[in-house]
Write a structure and sequence with these properties.
The protein is α/β, with parallel strands linked by helices and about 120 residues long. About 40% of the residues lie in helices and about 20% in strands. The strands form 2 sheets. The chain has a 5-stranded mixed β-sheet with strand order 1-2-4-6-7. It has a two-stranded parallel ribbon with strand order 3-5.
């Protein structure tokens, strides 16, 4: 899976540079994203603006990865979904359980708010 990584103070911004996410990529997605949980900065913003299609297995793997991040007190936010990808996720009732924002800026805001929330709860 081709990605670009940009590390910020509170999170990593990962841009997927693939035209689609398919079932054959699910293990690769997990291998690429889950190791960030071992870093000091664990939060991740996944930018899918270049992805034009996602199949069901890949979508379910994204939900699984998101759950792993939240189980480990880390944020996982997806942003910049193309309309057809958003519609696909909505049709399969996955969009409502995913942490999705329209823009990177909003994703960054969510990560920062969740960081503050975790600090208060600790």
């Amino acid at each position: 899976m081709n990605v670009k990584t940009d590390t910020k103070e509170k999170f990593h911004a990962i841009t997927v540079t693939e035209p689609s996410l398919s079932a054959t990529m699910t293990d690769e997605m997990a291998d690429c994203l889950l190791p960030y949980l071992q870093n000091e900065v664990k939060n991740l913003v996944l930018i899918l603006g270049e992805v034009g299609s996602v199949d069901m297995a890949a979508a379910e793997k994204l939900v699984y990865i998101q759950q792993k991040f939240y189980e480990n007190n880390a944020s996982f936010v997806i942003c910049e979904l193309q309309k057809q990808v958003e519609d696909f996720l909505d049709q399969h009732e996955l969009l409502e359980i995913m942490n999705v924002t329209p823009t990177q800026s909003e994703a960054w805001d969510i990560v920062q708010m969740e960081e503050i929330e975790r600090e208060f709860l600790d």
